[in-house]
Amino acid sequence: MFSVGEKVVYGENGVCTVEKIAPLDSAGADPSKLYYHLTPYIGSGTYYNPVESGGFMRPVISRAEAEAVISAIPEIEPAICEDKRSNHISAFYKEVFRLHTPEAMVSIIKGLSKKVAESKSIGTRAEADIRRAKNILHGELSIALEMTVQEVESYIKERTGS
Asked: Which of 11, 32, 67, 103 is the most exposed place for a label (fewest CB within 10 A)?
């Protein structure tokens, strides 16, 4: 069980803070069922995830793990879908997002960035997926490395030489 104030990675939503653990405050909600009340680190709103049978949640990686991820970036293979059918491409990247790891986010960013560079244009879906993967990755790394989200990208470039 996670604690109030803890930073967690919540599914494909990225880093969130556990604001409280309580029943939902709405008519018809089961008062005996506890939910994590989560606020996103990047973005706004509140997510509600059942404590007992909710969606994927894990602790944010440690500083050492974050440094290891950054060191491994040059070797991480890009996620590239060879299928040209849009529904297959969408399903492919959805599955990679569902891995919920920083390495998967790097793979998505590298794969879609390569695809965009080769086609000289960027589709709205690819652009949204790149932005989403960067938000998830940079949000987690910023917490682990104790720096702002804005500092993360330049830190990665400095460390990887790219």
From this structure: 32
Number of CB atoms found within 10 A of residue 50's CB:
13
Write the pLDDT tens digit of every residue in 36-55: 999 999 999 999 999 998 78
Asked if 39 and 5 touch (Cβ cutoff 8 Å), the reply is no
pTM (two decimals): 0.91
Query: How distant is the alpha carbon of residue 7 from its chain centre?
Result: 13
Sequence ranges of the domains in the chain: 7-59, 63-160
Alpha-carbon separation of residue 45 from 16, 19, 32, 37, 53 (angstroms): 10, 12, 24, 10, 21
Share of the chain above pLDDT 70, in %: 98
Query: What is the Cα–Cα distance from 68 to 115, expressed in whole angstroms?
Result: 26
Whether the pLDDT of residue 122 is over 70: the answer is: no
Predicted confidence band at 121 (pLDDT cuts at 50, 70, 90)? low
Instruction: Say if residues 17 and 27 touch (Cβ distance below 8 Å).
Output: no
Q: What is the pLDDT of residue 55?
A: 85
Per CATH, the architecture of 63-160 is what? Up-down Bundle (1.20)
